[in-house]
Design goal:
180 residues, mainly beta, 57% strand, elongated
């Protein structure tokens, strides 16, 4: 934002551990964001005020829908995320393995608009997604039975022009791969 700076900073970490046929993975992210000061009109309202992005409304104090969004968080920028997974590869002999895996991911709540208007649906709630799979590997072939969002959590993944986009529902499937 010219002339004011938006600040985004944080830290991410990832760990993987393998103990023979057993393996684990973990990832986490912490983030903070703050928009630089600027004024904008929320177009979801019919009233249109004169609004200078640098100085705001022509009248003081600010009136109408010309808002200073400085200090609000960046859109679609959750403060905290993490995921964890574990799997075990059972050796069935003759180049065959059977590997069950479970994974869990968390995304904290976040904003879908720079205006941070919860009443207009700008706040997206946190979500927790559980998945699992069972992979059979035989030489150059792998067949995987999988399930995602096993708890069938209902959540809004995004908002665009007032339309709320639902997150993926519970899904099951089979994936077959041949490597050459």
């Amino acid at each position: 934002n010219d002339p004011n700076t938006t600040k985004i900073y944080g830290v991410e970490a990832q760990v993987q551990a393998v103990f023979g046929a057993l393996s684990f993975d973990f990832g986490a992210g912490l983030m903070h964001s703050s928009l630089g000061q600027f004024y904008a009109v929320d177009s979801r309202f019919t009233q249109v005020d004169a609004c200078n992005p640098k100085s705001g409304p022509a009248e003081a104090p600010p009136v109408g829908y010309c808002q200073n969004v400085g200090g609000n968080p960046q859109t679609y920028a959750p403060n905290f995320t993490f995921n964890v997974g574990a799997q075990y590869a059972f050796d069935l002999g003759n180049e065959n393995t059977l590997t069950p895996r479970v994974n869990y991911g968390h995304v904290s709540d976040q904003w879908a608009s720079v205006f941070d208007n919860a009443a207009m649906g700008d706040r997206l709630g946190e979500r927790n997604i559980l998945g699992a799979q069972l992979a059979w590997n035989s030489g150059t072939w792998t067949a995987t039975l999988y399930g995602s969002n096993l708890t069938n959590e209902h959540y809004i993944a995004a908002v665009n022009s007032g339309i709320r986009w639902a997150g993926l529902p519970r899904q099951f499937g089979i994936n077959v791969v041949k490597t050459f």
